[in-house]
Amino acid sequence: MLQQFNEKNRDLIVNINGRLVHRDEAGVSPFDSAVQGGDAVWEGLRVYEGRIFRLTEHLDRLRDSAKALAFAVIPSHEAITAEIRKTLAANQMRDGVHIRLTLTRGVKVTSGMDPRLNQGGPTLIVLAEHKPPVYGTHGLSLVTVSIRRFPPDCMDPKIHHCNLIQSILAKLEANVAGADDALMLDTRGFIAETNATHLFFVEKGLVRTSRTVACPEGITRSVVLELCRQHGIPHEVTDLSLTEAYRAEEAFCTGTMGELAAVTTIDGRTIGSGSVGPMTQRLTGLFRELTAREGTVVA
Predict the structure, then answer these.
(1) Beta bridge partners of 191
(2) What's this model's pTM, rounded to 2 decimal places?
(3) Would residue 21 count as lying in a domain?
(4) Which residues does residue 263 pair with via DSSP β-bridges, in sequence order?
(5) How many helices (H) and strands (E) does the chain have?
(6) Are 161 and 106 contained in the same domain?
(7) Are 250 and 223 found together in one domain?
(8) Does residue 252 come out as left (phi exceeding 0), alpha (psi in the -120 to 50 range) or beta?
(9) Model confidence pLDDT, tens digit, residues 85-126
(10) Tens digits of per-residue pLDDT, 162-221?
(11) Domain total in the chain
């Protein structure tokens, strides 16, 4: 599923270390760690009617990831939120907005891998775009790809880092196969996630999702599990095989950029009736109710 250019974003103002510049003039140093080695962490945020949903949780994950990568300096939640507000104000944005928040280790004194070459503090990039949820309502097709998600002893997925080569390689395979996204397994053969989202399956009224052994600790994923607890919906976090995915009555994926989106085909198998199922519809409704009333005011 290829996203199209949105004319509303033609003259975006981008925030780089507090400096507001037109998208065509924005840039980072070739000595920046994100350019040198993907040495950065990131978050996706969504703005609903002037509020960012679960902002604190996203900033906590950003900080936790930066700590795991031993960043010498990490901006406070308050400092980052102030830059987000400044960026939204500069673009006159308050709804239907997706924010890509990136924190790099910063600019190196000379090119090289060694983090000791970073001596000037981090680089904070706030990119806000007019962007509704990216998946349509027709149902997504997935194809299982050869690229595996790493376990913690190879590359801990709890570090939300910017080196997305695994996901890009997986997406390339999905594109060649004509699928919307890639389904990725862990090194044991269990379902991890897609190249961009977490996966849920519904069977006999039970909502099931994978453990975070080889996938990130998703914010939207955690909200769906929270909604299940609050509304008495049976749910389970466990290892899941492809066979369990194929026989599911419903499947859907979750993520900040796409919210909840039904999956109707996996590896050529029709999931359930091949349409958006009742549990997916119910949880989507509950999620939208939550985002309509909760969030940190930023615009």
Answers:
(1) 185
(2) 0.96
(3) yes
(4) 140
(5) 8, 16
(6) no
(7) yes
(8) beta
(9) 999 999 999 999 999 999 999 999 999 999 999 999 999 999
(10) 999 999 999 999 999 999 999 999 999 999 999 999 999 999 999 999 999 999 999 999
(11) 2
